[in-house]
Design brief:
heterodimer; A: mainly alpha; MetI-like fold; 14 helices; 72% helix; B: mainly alpha; two-stranded antiparallel ribbon; 15 helices; 2 strands; 74% helix; globular; transmembrane helix (chain A); membrane (chain A)
Chain lengths: 276, 319
């Protein structure tokens, strides 16, 4: 379908306008983060951050407890990703390499779990963790996030394992390799792309969650980064320079991840909700 | 593998399980593999779900937190929630906001997907990168950014609106102080964050439609709108259904954006069922009522997405 010249110009103009509007908030975040403190609060906003300064970043990172918050976020996210991937891999092997009673029921259960609104589980989980004395512990958050990411990771891994021909393993079994060896040396390397996709999704859930961390972490030193960011505004006012620089730092790893896996992004997101 | 075969040419099936014990072990293997995942899901999703329903029938309040015993009160919590003056506006607001956010997201997302298909490769890449960047900004970071963009006095959006000279002086305008502007603020944020997923998913679907179909339709004299209705929409039906359901589910459950921007205010004007359940439970320490609201919200969401879930379970035949 060839388009006339005016039509093409109109299309490109529409696309440019869309890009300008949609990127503007991010541009403004980066612009504000690099501005000197004096340029933040001006009657006429400054559209370029010159002279550049890292003062806002230094201010955000230098806030009390920042290293603890960063460590909390990193520990929680790291453990959730590792555990979720290991557990999901085993489950996906069971679901794709064996037929057994209850298999279909489990798959439907995994699908159904994703329709349950996350905030609905907040009250019972809070009360259960409270009676187990697991509030204010990273363990409580880790277990919660792991359960929340499992359905999607199982589903994604299952999709990838489906693509690995059974003949490969059968050949290895014929050659005398045990089931564990087959899993480790044949299946695992072949599903690496699936593991990467599933890790990124688990990473994002654990890294971005605010609600559960906000409710379960009452002790200030136990905050994760999102809770810390949200606590920037106080009754005395908001340090916008620090807040925006902190938000930029917090968003950076996720933007980088999204850029790296952008090709798989859509496939992975929809895999959780539609079959195969 | 070839090396292994050469090493043991005489007994190729030596390791294949034989005997009753080995068969039993083999039958148990899938359950062992599944056990960790099933255990975590049962403990952290299944059990809390049951407990949520139980709590909704109990007088679970601050006292219960210390004594550990809660009294059964039957339908009391539901009666209180459903009998409250807030319930009707709350339901209407939740539904309207959800429809407005999901509808806006789908309309803009579809338009962008169609636009992307019509663009040249370079401009399309630019749109894709913009979408991915906006999509990647974490929820809380985006919400904090919104407070800065729309800040009274120094917010850049207020400044631009004032310069437009259409709406009057927005210099000191406090978005969170008025009902409609608070709703607009939340709507803009949620739509900004949700459009990328919808646009990219629909675009991926669009690229799967063979060009022949359009050519055939064009030969039959179909105009652009007719081609869209006769070729594009039927082809995208299942993907459209998927993104619609996901948008409804996500927008129904929006919490962070509302809570961090407005705390459900001013005067409850931006509170939805999810926010209400949260404040009942954690601000008023009435966990029973909060649980009742959460059960109602879950039921409502299930009813809204019933058609889709049924379709999913039906395709379960091929799982």
């Amino acid at each position: 379908m060839k388009r006339s010249r005016p039509a093409r110009i109109a299309l490109n103009a529409a696309a440019a306008a869309f890009c300008a509007v949609w990127i503007f908030p991010v541009y403004w975040m980066v612009n504000s983060a690099f501005k000197p403190a004096g340029d933040m609060l001006t009657a006429t906003p400054r559209f370029l951050p010159f002279p550049l300064t890292l003062g806002n970043f230094a201010g955000a990172v230098g806030k009390p407890h920042f290293p603890a918050y960063l460590a909390n976020s990193l520990i929680v996210t790291g453990v959730v990703v590792a555990v979720a991937i290991a557990v999901a891999f085993l489950a996906a092997v069971a679901l794709t390499r064996f037929t057994f009673p209850g298999r279909r029921g489990f798959l439907i259960g995994v699908l159904a779990v994703q329709m349950i609104p996350g905030p609905a589980l907040l009250i019972p989980l809070f009360l259960s963790l409270k009676s187990l004395d697991l509030l204010d512990t990273l363990l409580g958050l880790i277990v919660t996030y792991t359960a929340f990411v499992l359905p999607l990771t199982i589903w994604v891994m299952r999709g990838f394992l489906h693509g690995v021909p059974k003949e490969l393993e059968e050949a290895a079994m014929v050659d005398g390799a045990g089931q564990l060896t087959v899993m480790r040396t044949i299946l695992l390397p072949l599903v690496t792309p699936g593991i990467i996709a599933a890790s990124v999704f688990s990473f994002i859930v654990a890294w971005n969650d605010y609600l559960y961390a906000y409710v379960m972490m009452k002790d200030q030193s136990r905050y994760t980064l999102p809770v810390w960011l949200a606590s920037f505004s106080t009754n005395l006012g908001t340090d916008y320079g620090g807040l925006i620089a902190g938000s930029t730092l917090f968003a950076l790893p996720v933007v980088a991840f999204f850029m790296i896996i952008q090709r798989r992004l859509v496939a992975g997101m929809t895999a959780g909700a539609v079959k195969g | 593998m070839t090396v292994l075969t050469k090493a043991r040419p005489a007994r190729p099936r030596a390791a294949a399980p034989t005997g009753a014990a080995a068969r039993r072990r083999r039958r148990a293997t899938p359950y062992l593999l599944l056990a960790p995942g099933a255990l975590v899901l049962l403990l952290v999703v299944g059990y809390p779900l049951v407990r949520l329903v139980l709590i909704s029938f109990q007088d679970y309040g601050l006292r219960t937190l210390f004594t550990g015993t809660a009294e059964w009160t039957g339908l009391d919590n539901y009666a209180k929630v459903l009998g409250s003056d807030e319930i009707v506006p709350m339901l209407l607001r939740t539904a309207a906001l959800c429809v407005a956010m999901a509808g806006g997201t789908l309309a803009i997302g579809t338009a962008v997907a169609l636009l992307m298909r019509a663009l040249g490769p370079r401009m399309r890449t630019a749109v894709t990168l913009v979408l991915i960047t906006a999509w990647a900004v974490p929820n809380v970071a985006a919400t904090m950014l919104w407070t800065w963009l729309f800040q009274p006095t120094y917010g850049v959006v207020n400044w631009m609106l004032t310069r437009l000279r259409v709406f009057g002086d927005f210099g000191q305008y406090d978005w969170t102080a008025h009902t409609w502007s608070s709703l607009v603020l939340v709507w803009l944020l949620v739509v900004w964050q949700s459009v990328p997923f919808v646009a990219l998913t629909l675009y991926a679907g669009l690229t799967q439609i063979p060009a022949d179909y359009y050519e055939a339709a064009a030969l039959d004299g179909a105009g652009a709108w007719r081609r869209f209705r006769v070729v594009t929409v039927p082809f995208l039906r299942s993907i459209l259904l998927l993104v619609t359901v996901l948008s409804v589910v996500w927008d129904f459950n929006v919490f962070n954006q509302i809570w961090l921007l407005t705390h459900g205010g001013p005067d409850g004007a931006t509170s939805t069922l999810v926010v209400w359940s949260f404040t009942r439970a954690f601000a008023s320490q009435s966990y029973g009522q909060g649980a009742a609201i959460a059960v109602l919200a879950t039921g409502l969401l299930m009813a809204l997405t019933w058609y889709y879930v049924r379709r999913l379970v039906r395709t379960g035949e091929e799982l």
